[in-house]
Amino acid sequence: MQESQTYSQTISYELSRRAVTRVLFRRLSLRYRRVRTMVLLLIAATLFYSATDIREFHYLAFAMFAVVLWMPWSLYRGLRAAVDQNPRFTDPKTVSFSPAGLIASGPDYKTELAWTYFGGFSEDDNYFYLHYQTDSASAALIPKSAFTPAQEDEFRRYATDRLA
């Protein structure tokens, strides 16, 4: 992107540790591979428990149930630790956007990104997600509360025109 490009809109926001952790947990815990693994473990545990009268297999079933319960808990704790270790998740940010792309800046960085850097766009009631091309589970998280209604419409238009 050229440095002389003018950016039409600028927003500022700061995400809380809790919000980042919650959104990442929801996105990562519902990935196909994770859900498939949990379902297969539950099926195996149920079969081990109900298919035989051998007591040792019951212990194996309980161990499998424990692993299924442990998986989301460990993911949440890992994400919380990652957010705590990387202040860029929760630092104050300023984002300027235009038809050419985005400029994101924080206390110790400034990054210019063309829309082509992102592989997709989605939104829910509270956030816009700009999906990275390199990893479908992670995305730039931008709260809708940082936008005015006009800015929100313009951002949505830029993102959908260039990423849909």
Which helices and strands, and how do they pair?
Blueprint: E1 9-13, H1 17-29, H2 32-50, H3 55-85, E2 93-97, E3 101-106, E4 109-114, E5 118-123, E6 127-132, E7 139-143, H4 149-163
Q: How would you explain this protein's 3D organization?
A:
- This protein is α+β, with helices and mostly antiparallel strands and 164 residues long.
- It folds into 2 domains: 9-14 and 91-163, PH-domain like (Roll); 22-85, no CATH class.
- 48% of the residues lie in helices and 24% in strands.
- It has helices spanning 17-29, 32-50, 55-85, 149-163; strands at residues 9-13, 93-97, 101-106, 109-114, 118-123, 127-132, 139-143.
- It has a 4-stranded antiparallel β-sheet with strand order 1-2-3-4, with no helix packed on it. A 3-stranded antiparallel β-sheet has the order 5-6-7, covered by helices on one side.
- A hairpin with a 3-residue loop joins strand 5 (118-123) and strand 6 (127-132).
- Helix 1 packs across helix 3 and helix 2 runs antiparallel to helix 3 (55-85).
- It starts with 8 loop residues before the first strand and ends with a helix.
- The mean pLDDT is 88.
